[in-house]
Design brief:
There is one protein chain. By secondary structure, the protein is an all-alpha fold. Among the domains are: about 200 residues, Leucine-rich Repeat Variant (Alpha Horseshoe); about 170 residues. The strands form 2 sheets. The protein has a two-stranded antiparallel sheet. Helix 12 packs parallel to helix 14, helix 19 packs parallel to helix 21 and helix 21 runs antiparallel to helix 22.
């Protein structure tokens, strides 16, 4: 029990203040109390003062001088513990102070648990040792164990409190800022690393080729900006260090052979370059699926293919570029089409093999997507160039070889009889050596063999025309299917034929290379597309511009194969005659109309008089509703036809009334120009066109109307319709139409200028007066409408009043009748 009591007593009681006995004053009440109660106060005389002083001091065998210092030390320690229990002051940056009314600032505090350090523990132990009660070994061990348990409990409580207490947001922001700063520094370091590796590779590729793998490793970095920079830097490196030949890795036998250091270095360079190039292309293919890397990857593909189409893995590059020819991104599509066109034009870099591969891939792409691609996918065919004389030269060479072989056989038979066996063996050796030398020379020269060129050109042409014919066939089949589906409807929806226009341009460009066996079928399909008879409706699913292009292509095919073809193109003239009426400015393309007029009417030297007159009359009538550029192209065509057909000029004579013939009546809506009877009509449209707002058109119309059978001098006599159309389009941008409400546009006879100068009329517009007239007109119309409305309301009101009066009269009559009946009964 004594030990337990010693352990429980931890802190000594405070000593009373030291007061000298002389100053102590005892009251009378205290003295009376003690005298009355001596039995209760007798224990005081029996107290042991020495033991009391020992227990209070808890210090055995200490002197009075040391005792004062010991108490001061304990007091100082107690004040520190009290301050720790009260709390610690929060950092002034983390919390705002509170200002009291007296002007003092108080900062917030956070409670903090008192933790005893090892030094304080040692001091307590020393103090305990110095005290009266000393612990034995067993008690010390028990105390240490208890202390460890308490420390573990305090640690767990601190961890839980840290989890419960929310983190400081400002510290989180500081951590994020530090992370961003470190990330920026890391990114900058990686960019510097990319620049250093690229510079080292470009400076000495063979010695620093090992850095290429390290550069490619940065292409797989998690940061997108770093990956893009690494991809573009690798692109520049590969573009500059790739050799001008195709790398062939050595075989196992070649690797076992002893070679020099230079050969080993070159082999190591080629092997490392080829493996790195392959890894780079694989990385590009994987990144192409991501939309943010699409443009960068396509740029890398196009640049490598344009720079080195001869190098290894060029087939993969061509397929990747061809797949993006019909991309929805305009930048990607334009980049790919430009690359393919340069590939077709620069065949010296690859010898024509890449051209054949690209054309076949495009043909397969059109077949897979069923001709539903962007026009740029086959517009690249227009950049192809074919040698027209190659087939002729090869045919002549074959004939010459056959003749030489026949002559050679006869001469060999004669020489065999005359020459001995020794001479024969010498001639055979000489011929063999010549053949070997020629073969080596062809292999060393950059130029390809003519037979190889002919083979590649044949493969290219076959793929191109298969694509064109597939597009034409698909267009016809699609129109027939839609015509069956929409047979009940009155209007057939226009189908989408994205590749038809590009196909017709290509057929017209390469028409001289088409085999004659396919000409009849080609013209048949063009006739169907131009007429639109496959749809079964009056309105063709093709546009007017597409039908005009079919007519243009048919004439180009016929003229380029004029020696071998004898085809009647009357059906195409009929289609052009009808399409002029269907043309609408703004909806259809005027450039195609001008080209059709030039090829079909102006370039044709021989014209039937009935057909020429029909086209002259229809063009003159359509000019009244055309735009200025289309009108100019039509008038130039009319002028050309009148110059070539002198008898058609009688249509300009108003008093004669046209040319009388087998058809004396004019049919303006006839579909056949031979049955229109246009020669019996008069070109009265020129009189209206001479008053056109555009001075160039009015001048042209007036000069055509003054043509006679003797004179051929006409304004703009040698200008084709296409040039007239383009010139007036450019002139229209700067031309301002001036209108005049006053009649100042009276013209005198003979004022028309026959030279190439435009007429200038001084027209004035009174805008204020015009606005006043318009306002007066609209106010008058508004007043009239209001008056009519009020009159209708007045009529309804009067009618309702009349009905009400009649109703009242009838009620009065009924009441009077009822009163009379009552009187009679009474």
């Amino acid at each position: 029990m004594g030990k337990k009591q010693k352990q429980k007593v931890t802190l000594p009681p405070l000593l009373p203040p030291e007061v000298p006995e002389e100053e102590i004053e005892v009251s009378d009440e205290d003295v009376n109390f003690v005298t009355k109660n001596r039995a209760y106060a007798g224990f005081v005389s029996r107290l042991d003062t020495q033991s009391i002083t020992k227990h209070v001091s808890r210090v055995a065998n200490t002197k009075e001088d040391d005792l004062e210092a010991l108490y001061e030390k304990r007091l100082r320690k107690k004040t520190l513990e009290n301050e720790e229990k009260k709390g610690i002051e929060v950092d002034r940056v983390d919390a705002l102070p509170v200002k009291t009314l007296d002007g003092k600032l108080y900062y917030k505090t956070v409670p903090k648990e008192a933790k005893k350090s090892e030094d304080s523990d040692k001091e307590n132990e020393n103090e305990g040792d110095k005290g009266v009660f000393k612990l034995n070994k067993a008690e010390r061990r028990a105390k240490l164990k208890k202390k460890k348990k308490d420390e573990k409990k305090q640690g767990k409580e601190l961890d839980q409190s840290e989890e419960d207490v929310p983190q400081n947001p400002q510290s989180d922001v500081l951590v994020e800022v530090k992370e961003d700063l470190t990330a920026a520094e890391v990114a900058e370091a990686k960019q510097l690393k990319i620049a250093e590796l690229g510079t080292a590779l470009l400076a000495d590729p063979e010695s620093n080729i090992k850095f290429l793998k390290e550069l490619l490793s940065l292409c797989k970095d998690g940061d997108k900006s770093i990956e893009k920079a690494a991809l573009l830097s690798s692109l520049v490196v590969f573009r500059d260090i790739i050799p001008g030949y195709r790398i062939r890795l050595p075989t196992e036998k070649e690797q076992e052979m002893n070679v020099s250091k230079g050969v080993k270095k070159t082999r190591y360079f080629e092997a490392t370059l080829l493996s790195s190039y392959k890894a780079y292309l694989q990385r590009l293919i994987t990144l192409q699926r991501l939309p943010e890397f699409n443009r960068v990857v396509v740029r890398c593909f196009c640049t490598l293919l344009d720079a080195h189409p001869h190098f290894n893995f060029s087939d993969n590059l061509i397929s990747a570029v061809v797949r993006n020819l019909s991309s929805g991104d305009d930048v990607v599509r334009k980049h790919c089409s430009t690359t393919i066109q340069s590939l077709f034009k620069n065949e010296a870099k690859h010898g024509g093999e890449a051209t054949v591969e690209a054309v076949q891939l495009i043909a397969n792409l059109v077949k897979i997507y069923d001709c539903q691609l962007h026009p740029d996918s086959i517009d690249v065919f227009l950049a192809l160039s074919f040698d027209e004389d190659l087939a002729r030269k090869t045919a002549d060479d074959d004939k010459a070889k056959r003749k030489k072989n026949k002559r050679g056989k006869n001469s060999d038979e004669q020489s065999r009889r005359a020459v001995s066996d020794n001479k024969r063996s010498k001639q055979e050796l000489v011929s063999k050596t010549r053949e070997e030398v020629n073969a080596d020379f062809k292999a060393a020269s950059l130029a390809l063999d003519e037979t190889e060129q002919r083979r590649m050109q044949a493969r290219t042409l076959s793929a191109v025309f298969n694509t064109y014919f597939r597009v034409l066939k698909h267009t016809i089949q699609l129109d027939t299917i839609r015509s069956k589906i929409n047979a009940t409807s009155s209007v057939v929806p226009r189908g989408a034929h994205p590749l038809l226009s590009s196909c017709l341009k290509g057929v017209g460009m390469f028409a001289h290379l088409i085999d004659l066996d396919f000409m009849a079928d080609l013209l048949k399909h063009l006739k169907i597309l131009a007429s639109g008879t496959n749809s079964g409706h009056s309105e063709s699913p093709l546009t007017v511009s597409e039908r005009l292009e079919c007519c243009i292509v048919a004439f180009k095919v016929m003229r380029k194969n004029l020696d071998a073809l004898n085809v009647d193109l009357q059906d195409f003239f009929i289609q052009l005659y009808n399409l002029i009426l269907e043309y609408r400015p703004g909806r259809d393309q005027g450039q195609i109309l001008a080209e059709a007029l030039k090829i079909m009417l102006c370039d044709d030297r021989q014209h039937d008089m009935q057909r020429a007159g029909a086209f002259i009359k229809r063009l003159a009538s359509s000019t009244l509703c055309f735009g200025s550029a289309e009108s100019m192209a039509a008038l130039v065509t009319v002028k050309n036809l009148l110059q070539k057909n002198v008898k058609c000029r009688y249509m300009l004579e108003n008093d004669v009334g046209g040319v009388s013939g087998s058809i004396v009546k004019y049919h303006p809506y006839s579909s056949d120009p031979h049955l229109s009877g246009a020669l019996a009509s008069v070109l009265w449209e020129l009189n209206l066109l001479s008053k056109h707002y555009h001075p160039t058109i009015s001048t042209m119309a007036s000069t055509i109307s003054k043509m006679t059978t003797a004179s051929n001098q006409v304004y703009m006599a040698t200008v084709p319709p296409q040039q007239a159309y383009n010139e007036l389009l450019l002139e229209k941008e700067q031309f301002n139409i001036k209108s005049d409400m006053k009649l100042h546009n009276k013209r005198k006879r003979g004022d028309h200028v026959l030279s190439g100068e435009d007429e200038s009329s001084s027209l004035e517009v009174d805008e204020d007066g015009f606005l006043k007239k318009l306002s007066h007109h609209f106010t008058a119309v508004h007043d009239i409408a209001e008056n009519e409305k009020l009159r209708r309301e007045l009529d309804l009101a009067t009618l309702s009043l009349q009905l009400h009066d009649e109703y009242k009269k009838r009620l009065k009559v009924k009441k009077e009748g009822s009163k009379l009946k009552k009187r009679k009964h009474l």
